[in-house]
Amino acid sequence: xxxxxxxxxxxxxxxxxxxxxxxxxxxxxxxxxxxxxxxxxxxxxxxxxxxxxxxxxxxxxxxxxxxxxxxxxxxxxxxxxxxxxxxxxxxxxxxxxxxxxxxxxxxxxxxxxxxxxxxxxxxxxxxxxxxxxxxxxxxxxxxxxxxxxxxxxxxxxxxxxxxxxxxxxxxxxxxxxxxxxxxxxxxxxxxxxxxxxxxxxxxxxxxxxxxxxxxxxxxxxxxxxxxxxxxxxxxxxxxxxxxxxxxxxxxxxxxxxxxxxxxxxxxxxxxxxxxxxxxxxxxxxxxxxxxxxxxxxxxxxxxxxxxxxxxxxxxxxxxxxxxxxxxxxxxxxxxxxxxxxxxxxxxxxxxxxxxxxxxxxxxxxxxxxxxxxxxxxxxxxxxxxxxxxxxxxxxxxxxxxxxxxxxxxxxxxxxxxxxxxxxxxxxxxxxxxxxxxxxxxxxxxxxxxxxxxxxxxxxxxxxxxxxxxxxxxxxxxxxxxxxxxxxxxxxxxxxxxxxxxxxxx
Amino acid sequence: xxxxxxxxxxxxxxxxxxxxxxxxxxxxxxxxxxxxxxxxxxxxxxxxxxxxxxxxxxxxxxxxxxxxxxxxxxxxxxxxxxxxxxxxxxxxxxxxxxxxxxxxxxxxxxxxxxxxxxxxxxxxxxxxxxxxxxxxxxxxxxxxxxxxxxxxxxxxxxxxxxxxxxxxxxxxxxxxxxxxxxxxxxxxxxxxxxxxxxxxxxxxxxxxxxxxxxxxxxxxxxxxxxxxxxxxxxxxxxxxxxxxxxxxxxxxxxxxxxxxxxxxxxxxxxxxxxxxxxxxxxxxxxxxxxxxxxxxxxxxxxxxxxxxxxxxxxxxxxxxxxxxxxxxxxxxxxxxxxxxxxxxxxxxxxxxxxxxxxxxxxxxxxxxxx
Lengths: 505, 370
Known about the structure:
The structure holds two protein chains of two kinds. By secondary structure, chain A is an alpha/beta fold. In chain A, the strands form six sheets. A six-stranded mixed β-sheet of chain A has the order 6-9-10-3-11-12, with helices on both faces. Chain A has a six-stranded mixed β-sheet with strand order 18-21-22-15-23-24, sandwiched between helices. Chain A is globular and about 75 Å long. The two termini of chain A are 43 Å apart. In chain A, 47% of the residues are buried. Chain B is mainly alpha-helical. Chain B has a domain at 59-293. Chain B has 14 helices and no strands. Chain B has helices at residues 2-28, 33-45, 48-73, 81-98, 104-133, 137-157, 191-208, 210-220, 222-227, 232-259, 270-280, 285-309, 314-327, 330-369. Chain B starts with a helix and ends with a helix. The chains are: A alpha/beta, B mainly alpha. Chains A and B meet through helix 10, helix 11 and strand 20 of A and helix 8 and helix 9 of B.
C-alpha cells in the first residue's frame, strides 16, 4: 500500500538490442530512488516506458498497487507521473507561469486567462518545495538550473506524485546541484516519490534512499544507500569477470607527438569544461580517455582539432605549438580526426564516397593542382585504391554516403583519415553504433596504426574498448584528468570508480 | 541519357502541369487555350524578331538564376540579386560613360568587370554580415535590394542625370563600351553569350575546383565542413561575392547591351525572376539557361498572344507562377511522374494481354462447342 510504482518483468527490445530484459523496479511513496548505470544500460528506456513514451514488449506496471496500462504521456500524467527530460521542453518566449500552466490554463469568465490565480498557485507550490521562482520572468532569460526548476514545477502543477528526473545534474553547476537535492528532499517529505537517473556515484549516495543498478538492460540489484559504498556500486555498474585486457603486443613508445599542458576551456554555457588538463601522447602509443560522457570529452576533442578556443594552457603537435591555430592548419600538420558523430561531422552525407574520401584534403596535393583546380582524376584513382584497401562495401565510388551502412560509413572515415599517414589520430567513440564485425575492424585498424608508429588518442565511453586498445588510460571526470594509469596496472573496477567520482582522494 | 531524363523529369512534368492548369484558367475565362498557346509559340519563335525577343528576355534572368544557384549551393538564400543587378548595372554604366577614347577591347571588358565588381560588393555585404554576425541573409540581401534601388534612383535623378534632365537616366555610354547587337533589328546583344559562358563557368567552378567543392561541402553540412578544416565563414563570403558578381554582370549586360545607358527602373524584377528560374532549372546552371529561355519565350510570345487573341499578358505571370508552384511541390511531381513512367508499362502489359485475347476467346468457344 506504500508502493508507488512497481514494474514487473519489463522487457523492451529494439532492432538488434535488448534495452530492458525482465526488469523489476519498486519505488515506495516518500522515497528517492536512484537508477544507476552506464550509458546504454537501459535507464532512460525504462523510464520512458513508465512515462508512456515506449510500449514494453512484456511486463506489468502497477501504480499504487493497481495494474495500469500507460500508453501515452497524457495517461502517465493522469496517473500522477511526471518526467523531467534531459532536454527541457519549454517555450523560451513565455514566462515561467505561462510555461507551467501550458495546456492546462485556468480561466475566468470562460475565455480569459486567470493570471492572478496562476501566479498565486505557482508561488504557493514553489515555496512549499524550496523551488522559488519569479513566475513572471521569461524562460529564455533563465539559467539552466532555473529552467529545470520550471520543468519540475510544471510536473508538480499537473499533479505529479511520482517524479522522474533523467540525469538532472549533468547540466548543472555544483551550487545548482545542491539546491536540486534540497528540493528533492522536500518532495520526499511531502510523500512524493522521486526516481533519479544518473551515473554519478557520489550523487546517488548523497541523496538516494534506495539504488537500483542496471547493466546492459538487466537489473544487477537494488540496495539501500546506507548499506553500500561507492566501490560496491562501481563494481555492480561495470561488474564482470576481470579479463586479460591488453592482448596486443607491447611496444616501446617513441617521442612525444601531442603535448597538452594545463589547458582550460569553456563549454557552450560558458562554464569551465576542462580544468588544467595535461597529458602526452607518444609515437606507437594509444592513450585512452575513459570517462562517462559529458565530463568534458566533447570539449577536449573540439579544443584539440581547433574548433574551441583554449582559455589557458598550451597544446603542441610534434613540438610545434598549435594552441590557437585553425583546424585547417592542424590538418596540414598531420592531425587526423575520427569524430564522434560520423554522420554530422565525419561525412557529408549528400557527397559521394569519392568526394568524402578527399574531404579535408581537397586543397592539398595531389588533389589540388595548379591554381584552384581539383584534380578529379587523381581523386578518382585514390578513391579506387582506398575502396579496395579498406574493403568499403559501396556499389560505386559515386554512391552517396547517405546510402551506406553505419559500418561502411565509418570505413570511409577511417580510410580517409588513416591513409594520410597522420602523426596524431584522435578517435572519438569510434565504434559507437557499429555491429561486432565493424567494431573489430575498427579496433584492428587502430592497433595497426599504432604498430606503424602512430600516436592515437582514443576517447570512448566504453570501458571494454578503452581497456582492450589503450596502452595508457587517462580518466576524465568533471573536466579534470583524475588519473593516468598504465593499462596493465589497472582494471575496470578502479577505472569505474574514478570515472564516477567515487574516489575520495 | 536515361539519368538525364530522370533528373529533368520533375521539371518537365511541372511545366506540362502548369500549362494544363493554365489552359483551364484560359477556358474558364472564355479564351481558347490552343489558340493562345499557338500564338505564344509563334510570337516567341515564329520569326527573327520573336527569337530575338525571346533570348533578350532570357538573358538577364540567366544571370540572376546563376546568382541564386551559386549561393544556394553554399546553403544560402540570396534573394537580393535584384539589388546586385542594379548596382552592377550602375557601376558598368559609370565606367561606360566615364572614358571617352579607350579602345573597345579595353573599355568593354573594363565596364563589364565594373559591373561584376559592383554586384560582388553588393553581395559581399550580406555575406560578411552572415559570416561575422550571423545576420540572416534573406533579410539583409532583401533589404539591400531596396537600398540599391533607391541609391541608383537617386544617382540617375540627381548627380548623373542626362541633360536636360527630363528623364531619370544617364547619358549614353560611349560606343566603345557597348556590347554588340547580334541580331538586328532586335535588341539581342552579345550578353547572351556571356550568360551562357557564365553558366558553363559556374558548373565548372562548382564541380571541378577546390573552391566549388568547399562551397558545396558547406552547403550540405556546415558541421562536417568545419570539422574537416574548411573555413566556413570565408566560404560563405566567397559564395555571396560570386553570386553578387554574377547578378552584377547581368545588370552590366542589360545596360551595355540593351539600353546603352542606365535608365531608372530598367529591371522589372529580374532578380526575383532568377529565383524562380533557378528553381525551374532544377538548381542546375545549364538547366536554368533552358528555364530562362522558356520564361523568355513566354514573355516574348505573350505580347503576340495579347495582340492576336486578346488574352491578357498577365496569363504569362500566372504560368510562371504555376511552374514554380509545381516545381516546389516535388512530392506531387514524383508521384505523378512515377505514375507517368508506369503508364507505358501498364499499356504494354495490357496490349500483351489483348494480343492473347483472340486465342483465349477461341479456346472458350471451342470448349463451349465440344
